[in-house]
């Protein structure tokens, strides 16, 4: 009987937090990436969403899998549906990282992947995280370095979720059958607008950070000017529509339901990541 967990995107934001957490809990872990390099002491295995011939070796000997799509891809269904099929064919439990709010419309690609998983017959848990707090030291870091976060979010608020809480929720779902067959919305404990987030960062980092509300066209132009592919830049712009509409301000108790602990606040995230954010007083 296999007793091993496959973590896709093991060297990504969530994967880097999830793999050591699972190992600390005594789990055997296969860390999947395009390079196949070991991650945090876990066994490395080559996995490429665009190369189905890599699936068999990755799924060999595992009974559970954390499935997510890394940043940079827009063809959600084309890349994730074959992974779901491969897992279901081997009766591997899937914990799927989806996106908050996709259950509003079955036509949304991530919701179509969720539906395929629900119908697959394999054990599963769906996690729907809100906007990552960690975006501030990854995607928005260049702006913070220059004292400005320029985004097409208008005055919309988001309940930013710390990646560590996503990883802890995933570990709980992978480590127990009691959450199987359910979907969970992962949010932080409060909803903040980007102006409020910028003020918080200014206070924690000891340097001025302001929020500049821009339109989609300006956002896309800035991204493409930095070398981002236009289709992906347009996709990133499109996902700010729910923010502007207020849909990402929702608060959920699901992190605590899964982990037994309340989610971290954005202030806790900022304090813990002050060096990565470039704080002047760290």
Uncertain parts: none
Global morphology: globular
Specify the helix fraction band: 25-40%
Radius of gyration: 19 Å
Spatial separation of the terminal alpha carbons: 49 Å
Strand order of the largest sheet: 3-2-1-4-5-6-9
- β content, as a range? 15-25%
Helical stretch tally: 13
Mean pLDDT: 94
Number of strands: 11
Protein model, in words:
The protein is an alpha/beta fold. 40% of the residues lie in helices and 16% in strands. It has 13 helices and 11 strands. The chain has a 7-stranded parallel sheet, with helices on both faces. The longest helix is centred in the first third of the chain and has 14 residues. It is globular, with a radius of gyration of 19 Å. It starts with a strand and ends in a 5-residue tail after the last helix.
What's the gist of this structure?
This protein has 282 residues and is of the alpha/beta class. It contains 13 helices and 11 strands.
Supply database-style keywords.
282 residues, alpha/beta, seven-stranded parallel beta sheet, two-stranded parallel sheet, 13 helices, 11 strands, 40% helix, 16% strand, globular
């Amino acid at each position: 009987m296999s007793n091993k967990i496959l973590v896709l995107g093991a060297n990504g934001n969530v994967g880097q937090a999830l793999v050591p957490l699972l190992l600390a809990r005594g789990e055997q872990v296969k860390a999947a990436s395009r390079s196949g390099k070991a991650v945090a002491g876990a066994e490395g295995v080559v996995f490429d969403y665009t190369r189905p011939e890599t699936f068999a070796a990755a799924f060999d000997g595992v009974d559970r899998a954390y499935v997510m799509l890394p940043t940079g891809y827009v063809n959600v269904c084309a890349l994730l549906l074959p992974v779901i099929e491969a897992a279901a064919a081997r009766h591997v439990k899937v914990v799927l990282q989806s996106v908050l709010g996709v259950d509003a419309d079955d036509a949304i690609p991530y919701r179509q992947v969720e539906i395929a998983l629900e119908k697959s017959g394999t054990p599963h848990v769906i996690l729907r995280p809100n906007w990552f707090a960690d975006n501030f030291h990854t995607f928005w870091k260049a702006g913070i370095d220059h004292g400005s976060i320029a985004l097409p979010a208008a005055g919309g608020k988001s309940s930013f979720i710390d990646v560590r809480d996503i990883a802890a929720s995933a570990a709980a779902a992978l480590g127990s059958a009691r959450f199987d067959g359910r979907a969970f919305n992962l949010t932080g404990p409060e909803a903040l607008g980007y102006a409020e987030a910028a003020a918080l960062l200014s206070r924690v980092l000891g340097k001025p950070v302001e929020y500049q509300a821009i339109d989609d066209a300006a956002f896309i132009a800035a991204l493409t000017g930095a070398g981002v592919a236009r289709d992906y830049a347009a996709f990133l712009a499109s996902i700010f529509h729910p923010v502007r509409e207020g849909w990402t301000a929702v608060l959920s108790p699901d992190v605590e339901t899964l982990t037994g602990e309340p989610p971290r606040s954005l202030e806790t995230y900022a304090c813990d990541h002050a060096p990565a954010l470039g704080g002047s007083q760290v």
